[in-house]
Amino acid sequence: MSVRELVVLGTSSAVPTPRRNHNGYFLRFDTHGILLDPGEGTQLQMRRAGVTAHDLTRILITHFHGDHCLGLPGVIQRIARDRACQPIHAAYPADGAAYWHRLRNATAFDDTTDIREQPLTGESADLGGDPGITVQARALAHRIPCYGYRIAEPDGWSLRPEALARHGITGPAAGELKRRGEVTTPAGERVALHQCAVRRPGQAVAFVLDTAPCAAAEELARDADLLVIEATYLHAHHHLAAAYGHLTAAQAGAIATRAGAHHLVLTHFSERYDTDDDSRFAAEAATAFGGPVTVATDLCRVALPARRR
């Protein structure tokens, strides 16, 4: 049975706290295991969450501020130590290639050749290497080069039983119709897939971390089933958000609304906030977004919403 869920490994911004580890997100999407922004302590958080090196198929780095990448040495060394032989594509801003190589070679260990680097340049990129899904990157508005990511499956089809019955299509013929796009019935009628099915939107997850409000954030989040987005500050500190290229919870909610996202996951919180502030983040986001809001906590799991039909 396929599993589609977000495992949150860390939710703090620049400074980890006793309650919040540095950033870290693992998206399990069927056979794909995507690790995004492994901050300091990610290897331990993976163990606590039951995520192994063998689960990883891709690493995505938004940018090279420490809270988004200081866990890379431990994760890469774990991949090599555990002999996780599957190819692992790793995307990161090309402008930060020097940081990538320093982190990858931070200590003495037997490196692995199974990590396939994909340095990103320009405003957007479509990343290959993942059968059954697409991975897109878009440049965000931060103080240093930073990318957001969108993971999506192609749209599919849902067969309509009444239409199949009307055309006399039963049993294996229905599967052939879905697979090939058309079928010839025993009566000699040629039936196309669109005559017996409706489009089913593929599921999509967007990651928007470390950015000021920008069009690219909304493009990534467009109609996303799950939008994982930074909410570093509450509105009371909106001047800090503007100064440092971050979002408030209300701004995150507004992006979700304009993009038509379906479930909002807030994360990347300043160390100035504590447990009592969680409800304030949810409330501020809800002033701009009417859908479900999750204020992420370390090691929480968020299942993708049910498929839309």
Automatic annotation (TrEMBL):
It is an enzyme of class 3 (hydrolase). Its EC number is 3.1.26.11. It catalyses: Endonucleolytic cleavage of RNA, removing extra 3' nucleotides from tRNA precursor, generating 3' termini of tRNAs. A 3'-hydroxy group is left at the tRNA terminus and a 5'-phosphoryl group is left at the trailer molecule. The keyword Repeat does not apply. InterPro entries: Metallo-B-lactamas, RibonucZ/Hydroxyglut_hydro, RNase_Z/BN. Residues 197-269 form the Metallo-beta-lactamase domain. GO terms for molecular function: 3'-tRNA processing endoribonuclease activity. The keyword Transmembrane helix does not apply. Keywords: Endonuclease, Hydrolase, Metal-binding, Nuclease, tRNA processing, Zinc. Binds 2 Zn(2+) ions. Its cofactor is Zn(2+). Zn(2+) 1 binds at residues 63, 65, 142, 210. Zn(2+) 2 binds at residues 67-68, 210, 268. SUPFAM superfamilies: Metallo-hydrolase/oxidoreductase (SSF56281). The active site is at 67 (proton acceptor). Gene3D superfamilies: Ribonuclease Z/Hydroxyacylglutathione hydrolase-like (3.60.15.10). Belongs to the RNase Z family. Zinc phosphodiesterase, which displays some tRNA 3'-processing endonuclease activity. Probably involved in tRNA maturation, by removing a 3'-trailer from precursor tRNA. Homodimer. This is Ribonuclease Z. The gene is rnz.
